[in-house]
Structure formats: C-alpha cells, structure tokens
Amino acid sequence: MTEQGIAKPALGQIGIWSFSLRFSADATAAVQGLEKLGFKTLWVPGGNDDGVLDLAKALLEATSTLNLATGILNIWKHEPADVAAWWRALPAASRSRFLLGLGVSHGGVIGEAYGKPVAKMREYLDALEQAGMPSATMCLAALGPKMLQLAQARTAGAHPYLVSPRHTAFARQTMGPDALLAPEQGVVLESDPGKAREIVRNSIKFYAGLPNYTNNWRRDGYTDADIETVSDRLIDGLIAWGDVNAIGARVQEHLQAGADHVCLQVIGPGGLMGDLDYDLAAWRKLAALL
Predict the structure, then answer these.
(1) Contact predicate 12/261, CB 8 Å
(2) Any domain includes 259
(3) Which residues touch 195 (CB under 8 Å, ≥6 apart)?
(4) DSSP string, 155-210
C-alpha cells in the first residue's frame, strides 16, 4: 500500500505496450493470442484521439485474464465525468482488470490551453474522484519529480515512457517503495548495432522535439548534443536491442532499479506504429522471458 492507502495493481513483471494493436482491425484475435502466450498486462496508447476507451472495452470483453491499461489516455480528449461513467458501466470482472493510465500530452500539441501540467492533472484527478473513479484504478505518465510525487500521492503510481533504468531508480527514490512503477521499454530484436540503431533513430527522433522528454533526458545525464543528433549513447540508454537475452537483461536492470512491471514496446523496421504480424512474431519470442 502507498502512504495514502492505495493498493498496487498486480500487473506481472513483464507486459506488452502496443501501437500496432491499438490501431488494427485484427486487435481482438491478436489480444487473445497475447493472453495465451502468458502475458498478464497489455498497454494501449490513446494520446492522439478519444477512441482508446472503446478499444479497451472491446479487448476486455475478448479476454478473461489479461489486464488492460491505457498508456495513456490524454486528459485533454476526455471529460473526467465521462471516463468515470464509462468505468462504472463495465462489468465488475472487467473493472478489476483495467488500469487507467493518464497523461497531459505536450504543450506543442495542445497549444495555449496547456498551462501548468501538474496543476491540470491534479484538477483532473479531483474531478475523477468526485465522479467515483477509485484512485487505485489510475496511474500517471510521470517523468519529472512533481508529476511523480502526484502519481504517488493520488494514484496507484507511475507509467514513465521512453526512459532508462537510471530514470527508474530516480522514480523509485522519488515515489518511495510502495507506489506502482511501470516503465515502458522500447525493444528492437536486432543484434547488428548499425541496423538496430538506425531503426531506433528513425523511430524516436520525433520525441527529441518534445520538451517533456528532452528535459527528462537532460535530468538523466544526456547532453544537448545527444538529443540533437539522437546519439548512439541516447539510443543505447533508452532502447534495448539485441536478442531475447539482451532484452531480458534490460528488463532486469529496470526491476533491480525499482520497477514493479516493465512493458515492452516492439520497434521493428516499420517504426513505432509497427506492423501487427511482425509484432506478434516478436511477442512469441519475448514470451520466453515470462
């Protein structure tokens, strides 16, 4: 339990984070396959639109044991009362397998209304709680200390994205021992350094233009030159590449640094949006880590 008495959800040590499944017409069959492989938790993104809850409901209905988490629901795209009403309408068995990951998006995306992100998130959490959404069913996409502290105090914990094991240690120290810490870890199943880094560089250079991430990378010890060039050092720190054993070693680094759960995002030659068939084959390989 956290200091506020918020229970930590049981997600298993290794989960999957998927763009390709989020936007696929074959999502139902794919998620059933993922469940059969033995993964306990699936994270699906919802940052760019308001459709993630419809998908979450469908995937919960299609499965019986798999936890479903949003990574994340964009708080600018959903009214808190609507989110809470959606959650209350779920069958009890589905509610018990759902974790609402919330994020504030980015100033460059939202515009002038963006304001102070921590204050905005606090207001959103207030409204969710007033509408009957339990704190234990939520976590925050948190990178910096203030958002991590809010995640610890008001939700089950934090879901940092595009971070190193060094950040995981920082997040654990900031939140204390009891809050959920579930970092996303990008993975490239390619052992050739040049090929792996080229895949990563093409995939994450977009994020090098977003202050939420670049400020966090600077806190983590990366230089402006690392960020501007998307250097090998930055790539190797943020993304795990190599064979399944190399991916497993990175997962262990996060766990040893204080993570409770690590969700793996497969990055293939097609980039972050991915290809579901490619990802399914990769998930079958990664299931060896369970």
Answers:
(1) yes
(2) yes
(3) none
(4) SSEE---S--HHHHHHHHHHH-SSSEE--EEEEE----HHHHHHHHHHHHGGGGG-
Q: Which tokens sit at 121?
A: 């998130």
Give the domain range for residue 184.
14-289
| 7 located within any domain | no
Residue range 33-46: mean pLDDT, rounded? 97
User: What angle do the packed helices 52-62 and 27-37 form, to 10 degrees?
Assistant: 50
CA angle 129, 136, 88 (to 5 degrees): 60
Q: Give the Cβ contact number of residue 49 at 10 Å.
A: 11
Q: Is 148 exposed, middle or buried (0-12, 13-18, 19+ CB in 10 A)?
A: buried
Indicate which CATH number applies to the domain containing 245. Answer: 3.20.20.30
Reported as a single tens digit per residue, the pLDDT across 235-289 is 999 999 999 999 999 999 999 999 999 999 999 998 888 899 999 999 999 999 9
Q: Is residue 6 part of a domain?
A: no
Residues 210 and 107: their CA atoms lie apart, in Å, by 9
What are 103-145's pLDDT values in tens digits? 997 666 666 767 789 999 999 999 999 999 999 999 999 999 9
Q: How far apart are CA 160 and CA 80, in angstroms?
A: 22
Of 265, 238, 213, 227, which Cα lies nearest the Cα of 105?
213
pTM of the full structure: 0.96
Residue 127 is assigned to a structural domain of this protein = yes
What number of residues does the chain have? 290
Domain count, the chain: 1
- Dihedrals phi, psi of 103, to nearest 5 degrees: -145, 155
